[in-house]
Amino acid sequence: MTAVSSPAPKETSAKKEPHWVMVIDLQKCIGCDTCTVSCKAENRTPPGISYNVVMEMEIGEFPNTQKVNIPRPCMQCDNPACVAVCPVGATFKGENGIVDIDHDVCIGCRYCIAACPYGARSFDFGENYAEMIDYEQVQAPEYGVEHGPRTKGAAPIGTVRKCTFCFHRINRGEEPACVETCIGDARYFGDLNDPDSVVAKLAASPRAFRLKEELGTEPRVIYLK
Amino acid sequence: MTALTPSTGARPVTRTLWYLVLALLLGAGGYAIILRMIGGLSTTNLTSTTPWGAWVAFYIYFVGLSAGAFLLSSLIYVFGMTRFEKVGRMALLAALVSMIVALVFIGLDLGRMDRALTPMIRFNWLSPLAWEVRFYVIYIALLAVELWFSVRADLVRRSATSKLAKFLAFGTKVADEAKDHHWLQILGTIGIPIAIFGVHGGTGTIFAVVKARGLWFGPLAPIVFIVSALVSGTALLTLFYVIRQKARRMEVDGAMVSELGKLLAGFLVVDLGLVFYEFLIPALSMNPHEAEVIHTMTSGPYSWSFWFLQLAIGMIAPAIILLTRLRNSWVMTTLAAAMVVIGIVGVRFNIVVPALIPPLLPGLPRGQYFPTWIEWLSSGGVIAMGLLLFSIAAEILPLDWTERNGGTLDDHAA
């Protein structure tokens, strides 16, 4: 298995966008779901929508079983199937490589949800908002865009949502919430274009793999098995 | 309305009952649609795991009926199969109405209905759906113009007695069927590739490009869509023709119904062959991705819709009728057509839903979907809207070729 076929770094201008990637070491993941919880707290997602989940499964047959936890944020693919199918171009690959959704354009056809091979997208049905205390007073900085206070029927309700790699935090020079809060330090975030970065070194590990690599989506989330 | 409809001979009670049933369905459907508008998509049983359901299934169902009906009309107007010309105008009307119904369904399915026109302004050339929206609009315009040309001469003839006909003739004073026929031929010829590749093949492409989902992905889907469109469109016209004749207490042309039955049999056999391969190849490939979808379809909680609705009612029973001596009776042929029209609903649901059930990754939740009563009632209402549009148009427009006072298309084409 090839580790990560990173796009050939172009030796051109000094001011180059970083190639953000996330590395998740499955040997360190204990399946505590802190990432899921901190993601919900950070992004104020309503009940029913989780940008990050931890897929917990038991493999093998008793008694030779093994627990595997695979955290799944959005893969921020370099060849995103979701972006290709969007009829209105509401979802697109941003300059920083993050797959962005413009909630003011999305028509809610959900084609991208059907097309995403990782189940990383959720439709915001507008349900259960009231269960969130003071939900109308908080703002969720989706992709760094302030949509103002959440109101009934307004974006992002009725549109498709997903993990943003904590776009707003990256802009502030911080790591995504799931990376920062991971109690086992299983998650790493950084610039793959920087050969000295931790992520670049981990991505070169023989343990590195990506989900459904055969589909050619070129995910930016790299797992260490 | 009676003044405009010299050809209708429906008993007042039949007509009243028909419109009453439609009004009831429209009322109930309208109520459901209002609830959907207020509550958004949370009034459906759709989830982020199974994001498409009944409305998408009905949308592809009606796109299929439309493409099929139109292609049948082109057999008449482009390829000169005059033996079907009694249903030619009806085919164009049915195609137009079905397409409008399909668009209402997909509009109802949008999370942001207020942005329904955004796809007309913004474009993503990689998205089959973006292309489809444009093809649908071109296709609807083409159908409307072609329908007009097909009835224009009779509208002109009626102009003396009917103001509406005079208006609908849009200033045409002389009935010139040869010219109209020429136009029908041109428009039909342009329409064939649009209907095949643009409208229904394209709708199949929406599903065929999704590599994430078993049974959708692959080059066969668009072809299956086109063939099943021909099946459903032919069946719909056979059924509509017979019902319309009976409702108006007019004679059914049994010979033509049998001919339509033969055509339907041919399409059905090709469709069965495609379905055979559509299941055989994924099943033999042992690809778990595909096998899970087949498993969901054939033994899941709604497998009855596959075995009973899709296969038994939609394909096997009509094929038995149409391929044996039973087809000599136009009543049986009509029954087969009715079964196909109902059975294809199962086909459409089984295209959309089962592929969205298996978890995309082990550890993700499994989907589960059955429409809510709001989804059913609103669907009933939208279909009733289509039937109402068709009925009113059929009462106003000269849909019967016999009104031409004798003569066939051939005479004029010559």
Can you put this structure into words, describing what you see?
The complex is a heterodimer of chains A (about 220) and B (about 425). Chain A has about 220 residues and is an alpha+beta fold. Chain A has helices spanning about 35-45, 80-85, 110-115, 165-170, 175-180, 200-205, and strands spanning about 20-25, 55-60, 65-70, 90-95, 100, 120-125, 160, 185-190, 210, 220-225. Chain A contains six helices and ten strands. In chain A, the strands form four sheets. A four-stranded mixed β-sheet of chain A has the order 8-1-10-9. Chain A has a two-stranded antiparallel ribbon with strand order 2-3. In chain A, strand 2 and strand 3 (about 65-70) form a beta hairpin. The N and C termini of chain A lie close together (about 10 Å). Mean pLDDT of chain A is about 85; it is low at about 1-5. In chain B, about 70% of the residues lie in helices and about 0% in strands. In chain B, helix 1 crosses helix 13 (about 375-395). The two termini of chain B are about 35 Å apart. The chains are: A alpha+beta (about 220), B mainly alpha (about 425).
Distance between the termini of chain A: 12 Å
Secondary-structure element string of chain B: HHHHHHHHHHHHHH
What class, by secondary structure content of chain A? alpha+beta
Low-confidence stretches of chain A: 1-6
Described by strand count, sense and barrel closure, the largest sheet of chain B is: none
Report the helical percentage of chain B: over 70%
Q: Note the run of SSEs of chain A as H and E.
A: EHEEHEEHEEHHEHEE
CA-based gyration radius of chain A: 18 Å
What Rg of chain B do the Cα atoms give? 22 Å
* Helical coverage of chain A, percent range: 10-25%
How many beta-strand runs of chain A? 10
Compute the average pLDDT of chain A: 86
Strand percentage of chain A lies at 15-25%
* Number of DSSP strand runs of chain B: 0
Structural class of chain B: mainly alpha
Pair of chains with the largest interface and how many residues each contributes: A-B, 46 and 41 residues
Strand order of the largest sheet of chain A: 8-1-10-9
Biggest sheet record of chain A: 4 strands, mixed
* Parts with pLDDT < 50 across at least 5 consecutive residues of chain B: 1-7, 403-414
Instruction: Please state the overall shape of chain B, judged from the principal axes of the Cα atoms.
Output: globular
* Shape, principal axes of CA atoms of chain A: globular
